[in-house]
Structure formats: structure tokens, C-alpha cells
Amino acid sequence: MSKKRPGGESLPSAPSTATGPSPDHEVPAATPAPDPKRWWALAVIALAQLMVILDGTVVNIALPSAQRALSMSDADRQWVITAYTLAFGGLLLLGGRIADLVGRKRTFVIGLAGFAAASALGGAATGPGMLFGARALQGAFAAVLAPSALSLLATTFTDPKERARAFGVYGALAGGGSAVGLIVGGLLTEYLNWRWSLYVNVPIALAALLGAPAFLRDRSGRRSGHLDVPGALLGCGGLVALVYGFSEAEPRGWSSPSVLTPLVAGVVLLAAFVWWQSRAASPLLPLRIVRDRVRAGSLATMGLATIGMFGVFLFLTYYLQVVLGYPPVRTGLAFVPISAGIVIGATQIAARLLPRTAPRTLMSSGMVLAAAGMVLLSSLTVHAQYVTHVLPALLLLGLGMGLTFMPVYATATAGVPAQDAGVASAVLNTVQQMGASLGTVLLNTIATSATGRYLHSHVRGPDADGATLDQGMVHGFSVAYRCSAGVLLLAALVAGLTVRPSKDPS
Known about the structure:
Helix content is 74%, strand content 1%. The chain is mainly alpha-helical. It has a two-stranded antiparallel ribbon. β1 (2-4) and β2 (10-12) form a beta hairpin. α16 (359-377) packs antiparallel against α17 (386-412). The radius of gyration is 23 Å and the shape is globular. 54% of the residues are buried.
């Protein structure tokens, strides 16, 4: 027997437990009764997801104020962001396997409590080192929290229609949390101070902690076995080395030994990690998870989507504040349309269509919409108007992200055995985090290089005036936006070619 994953993919059903005498009539396998508290569980999981995603950008707008308050150098300020992404991206696979071995509900609670404590520590920082350490702790606890949250969601909702609705909410938060972080960061920085961009996580975590014991139910998975320590060292070490190398590329240049050495080391370590996982008795990442073509295609789509999308937040923040002169709050509020588009695309369009529409159709359509939004942004000038030029692009980007992220989350976690749910969720989160880090670094390097070439060809004297500098900045952003559009179109192609069942006649 088989059952259908959303979009028509066939999944093996649970083996029948019936022992009746008639061989002509197969008795359906018993399925677990739906959890009566599952929608309250979704609210708890959504709070945790919002906090983790939001924290990737909430500090961005507060960073200039934090730099002044803590006497942070220009060279060191990047570590406020990089310390978080290094720990988060590098430890996600380990966090996912811990969730499978120790218990997803237990690791969820531990991750929440640790994240809240690290946020309070960062808000009370008295120097740069204390803030960097707190941000690294946030990333480490997020690496435990994120995969356990997604795997709890995947094992709580098994009905196709309810699963689509639940992942619609989750996808909306996953895509919109970054934009919400910019809004919240602007409000907190302007009306309170930069420390509240970290303190804000404490009440969110406490609310989720109060609901977790009452509403979360951890379906049984594997509770025996041991942690793959060599795999953890190779995999986490390789990811950390890659993220570090990418983060150093902009200030030092791609040819610097400080960039090439960690990048090469990261590739070697990850190659060794794959080799070891094919031989380990209890692998950190069972390779069967990524050998499934539909799942691999979903992961590739997510990686390319985040590479192409994440630069928009960085570039638009600078465009609105530096070129158009927006204050922090107005800059944050300018991102509301992209959040609204994500929510509508994920919950009202994708969630309704997924039970009867192939996931690849939604993913490819979403990426084409997002690419169109990027093309609109590439035509911005120093005199552009928000309503007529920026707003349409943000709406297209939001709808495209919502249409893409929701089916990716649902498809990449479908059909995974319960004992592997945590690590499968961790793989998806790792791809998203690494894509965001790589996209930000690469697109920023492209934009900076294009700006430099523009100024070199347009400045005749020793210095450029403000108008020329703004034009050079906007030119660099336009080049980066066009590159983003190309990456998003590639994501649409990958989804269309790979996210299809093996017996799909179309």
C-alpha cells in the first residue's frame, strides 16, 4: 500500500498489523489519532521559529548604535552578525541528531531556555567580547531549537490538509521573520535602545516555555544509540570553516589566505564527512535522507532561493536609509509589504493549493515571481519613489517567497522516519542558513565591486560628491539584483526538474 505526499508523490505506508485469516482483503494500518492540542502546539512552535528567524536580522538596524555604545571597531562589528551565523549554521546537524537521540520536546525546551538566557546576556553586554560571546551562544541554542521545532511540527500534523495549513504558517514565519526582524529592530532602536533588540527574545521564549509542557507531544523516535562524534567534528567543523571563509571574503578579498584556507579546509572536511557518514554505524546524517530525489531537489531549491533572496534585506536597508534618507522606524515599516506577501503566499495560496497541486509547480511559480521582483528592484534610481518603484517589487518578492518556502518545508520533511525527523529538519535549516550566509557575502561582494568600478569611471577628481556616491551605490545594488534574479530563475528550473515523483507521467 502507499499513501500520497502533497503533490502526488508516493510514500510507503506503515506495515499492516492485521492478522486476519482472509488473504483477499488487506486491513488498513492503524494510524495515530490526531493530537487534540495540535493547533496550540503549532502556536508554541511558531513562537520559537519566529524568534530564531527574527534574530538573524533584528540586530542589523541596531548595530550602529551598539557599535557606538560599546566602542566597537569597524573591523570587529561584523562579528555581531557572524558569531550568530557561525554557531547556528555550523551546529545545526549536531542539534538535529541530539533531538532524535535525546527527545525533540526535551531539546526544544532546552533550546528555548538557553536562547532566552543568551539573549539576556547579550542585552546586558558591557563590551564587544561579551556581546560576541552571547551571540555565539544564541546561535548554538538556535541550532538545538530549530530542528526540534520543525521535526515536532512534521510529526504532529499527519493529515495532508492540516499539514499543508500548519506548514503554511511555518513557511510564512520562516520567510517573513527576517523582514519582521528589520521592523522590530527599527522600532526598538528608535524608541528604546539597541539592547532591546536582544531583550525582546526573553518574553517570546518565556511564552513558548509556558506552552511547551502543556501542548507539545513528542511521538516516539529512536532513544537508543550513540552520538557520531567523528561525524559531528567533521560536519560541524566543515560548515563553520565555510561560513567563516565566506564572512571574511568581503573585508579581506577572495585571494587572501585568510579566506582561501578556511574555504579549502571546509570543502575537505565536508568531503571527509560524507565519506564517514557512508561507513559510520550511527551516522550523524544518514545519507538515505538526501538520496531521495524529491527531497534533494527541495533542499537545492531552498539553498538557491535563500542565496538569491537574502541580499534584498541588506541592500534595501542601505538604499532606504542612505539614499532616500529614511529613519530606522520608517525603514523597518517599509518592509511590511514583503512580510504581508509572504503570509498571503504561504497561508492563503500555497497552503490551499498544495493538497491538489504538485509542489514543483508552486516552487517554480514562486521563484519566477520573486525573480520578477528582483528585476524591478534593479531599475531603481537615486530619485525613485517608494510607492511606485519599491512597493510592487516587495509584493512580488513576498508572494514568491511564500509560494516557495511553504511547499519546500512540507515536501523536504515528508516521508522521513520518526527516528530521523530531527536530523532531516536540521538539514533543511542548515541549507537555509548556509544559503543566507553565502548569498549575503557573494551579493555584497558583487555590489561593492560594481560600485567601485562605477566610481572609478565617473570620478575625475580626488573625491566624489555625495550624489555620485549615491549613484555608484545604487548601480552596485542594481547589478546584484540582476544576479539575484538569475539565481532565482535557476531555483525555479531546479524545482521543476527534480521535485517530481519517479512515476510522474508529466
